[in-house]
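Slide 14.
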Amino acid sequence: MSVQPGEATSSTASATRRTILKGSGAMGLAAVAGVTAAAPAHGEGAAAPNVVIVYCDDLGYGDPGCYGSPLVDTPVIDGMARRGMRFTDFYAGAPTCTPSRASLLTGCYAPRVNLATVLFPDHTNGMSARETTLATYLRGAGYATAHIGKWHLGNPAVDPGLHPMEHGFDRYFGLPYSNDMAPLPLYDDREIVEQPPDQASLTRRYTEETVSFIRAHAGRPFFVYLAITQPHEPLASEFAGRSAAGPHGDSVEEIDHYVGVLLDELDALGVRDNTCVIFTSDNGPWYVGSAGDLYGRKAETYEGGQRVPFVVEWPAVVPAGVTYRQPTSLVDVLPTLLEAAGVEPDPERTIDGRSILHALTTGRRVDRGDLFSYDDQRTPSVGNCNAVRRGDWKLHVRRVPGPYFTGRAFSPTEELPQLFDLARDPGECYDLSRHYPELVTTLTARIEEFDAALRADHAERYGAP
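Slide 15: predicted structure.
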């Protein structure tokens, strides 16, 4: 039987959803801050799930085929969507690099953890030792952990305490920040091995390092955070010239190919059924790439800047072929994976995310509450809360001031507030604020209340910005 890269060769999963989740209690939990065993709701007897997060850089909502691209060929990602769950209303933690990555690893909106703005090589800020990352939680539960690819949560050359291996990762291979910054070192654990690296080779090399790590740790639970550098500018790919979507498409199609290589390796090792593979992006597309029918792009808190592809394949747990249409966010990943692994988050830390494990296991709706959109335009530590989404409604009270992509200069509050019904108007074309003034008042108050509480929490932990 011929198969595409990444296609499962067996027609049924070898383990049921029940047996996988039944045994996902924490194993031999280490005594690390904020990591405690969950109540034995799932019982004992099966292995804890493996986790692989494939995290692209500036991949647009409309770039993969399963999200409507007519030009970019992504058969592997499309296959993941057929065999797993595709989310239509999933939001990155922020519309830019550093804040979004902070949200993924902490389960918090980036301003809460002092990482609201994009970091540059000379910045001294970064992931604080005050925060417990997803990697730290899982390593404390017996997982082997690796970060392969782009870090962008502090420059270890400026402060060794900002190195990924100081924040829960056993293994690191990648770049400390964006590929358009200089100097651009490539780290192998704590050693700089190239400066600058050949960027066209990085997607392949990241995959090779990921495969090597998984092979070495296939006998125990593992967590790999694979943060691919592409398709962030400068675009670079060993698949140059292959895509009908130009260099951006070349990079995306190369990523698709190597996701297939990774899935095939999970099959070969016999661990694919119990491995949760997540495919997503840090924010919307930059100057090229597709946001689909959504308005806005990277750096903006309109839909095109933050709504991103999110596909989950986990054969033993996630039902096949489900399209999930409820609002969810990158901050939800940490609590979801901790629940799956049987690990309790630190009860002393406010976590903005909510577990959506029930949605993953059943395909049924989980109301995870309001979602907030922060920009990176304020101070180095705390950005602006620009918008809130509640159900199908989204209210904007601020925007990133232009000119950015529109070429038009405007103030952050010009023509605002704006209220959109995203179920009928996902492109945010028709402002309904005059039709629903009471809803505008309610949601404005909600933004102010939430933002004030977040800023108070930030000030208590980090001091005034």
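Speaker note: Residues 9-16, 22-45 have pLDDT under 50 and may be disordered.
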